[in-house]
Write a structure and sequence with these properties.
Helix 1 crosses helix 2 (27-35). The chain has three domains: 2-62, RNA-binding S4 domain (Structural Genomics Hypothetical 15.5 Kd Protein In mrcA-pckA Intergenic Region, Chain A, Roll); 70-161, 2-Layer Sandwich (Pseudouridine synthase), CATH 3.30.2350; 162-296, 2-Layer Sandwich (Pseudouridine synthase). The chain has helices at residues 14-22, 27-35, 109-116, 149-160, 233-240, 284-295, and strands spanning 2-6, 12-13, 39-41, 44-45, 52-53, 58-62, 80-83, 87-92, 140-146, 165-173, 180-184, 187-189, 197-199, 207-215, 219-226, 265-272, 276-279. It has six helices and 17 strands. With 296 residues, the chain is an alpha+beta fold. Helix content is 20%, strand content 29%. The strands form four sheets. Strands 7, 8, 9, 10, 11, 14, 15, 16 and 17 form a nine-stranded mixed sheet that branches. The radius of gyration is 22 Å and the shape is elongated.
Length: 296
Amino acid sequence: MNTDFVVEAPGGRLDTYLTNRIGDQSRSTIQAMIRNGQVRVNDKVAAKPAFELNVGDTVRISQINAEPVSIKVEAVELDILHETADYMVLNKPPGIVVHPAPGHESGTLTQAVIEYAPELQGVGEPGREGLAHRLDKDTSGLIVFAKHEEFLELLQQQFKSRVIEKHYLALVDESPPSSRGRVEAAIARDPKHRQRFSVQESGRAAETEFFIRERFKRHTLLELHPITGRTHQVRIHMQFLECPVVGDRIYGRRYPSLVVGRQMLHAWKMAIPGQGDFEAPIPDDFEDAMLQASRK
């Protein structure tokens, strides 16, 4: 059954308008319905909750009693570094997948966050609720979840415009050619290995700054500042410099040079305009790898 509304005054955001008009449905439910294609504006599907309405627009909703798409949630201990009504900053441990994906349908960080904060259900893309960025499974450190659609869109825009500063720590094999520098090397999906990416002239522009923090005999501790945010960017750029991240079994050495259980990459610091600076403590396994490097 369809329900129609005609916008009689400047409507603003689609999700806000419908939440006010319907009254008995939560905003997260309305947002999920919009993303699921159950809302049309002037007979065209409007897939974004932030769609701006104009006077005279006709809004049609189908299945008005629909519930948001749900994912399996489960209790996983969260290391919350900072929390407000708008967002949460977490310290992600290594070995945890951020969001559900083929082969990782449960036990993800997103599911644990929804268990802790159910209001995130329906915020953003189903299965990736609240996420404006991500970390690889074996990368530790800072990750941010938005609690409502407006702040999620703000974060997404800030990441896109590169005003959010991210700093990583990486323990790498060998050493880069200088104590500091910038890698400017485009990245695209590897045509020979579709699950990987590589440096290619035809790829998307990618830039990473690096700074040497400590030198060991056969290894180096680097501070890395990814200016762009391509998939696997830091790991690929370190491979490009011929100093791959220790323990990186995709872009690094086939057999790790140190006894490690994952890639030694840590999302260390982040500065979000208007919110502050955040820092994730260095994990024990990272500290252990540096101790090993100092004894080599």
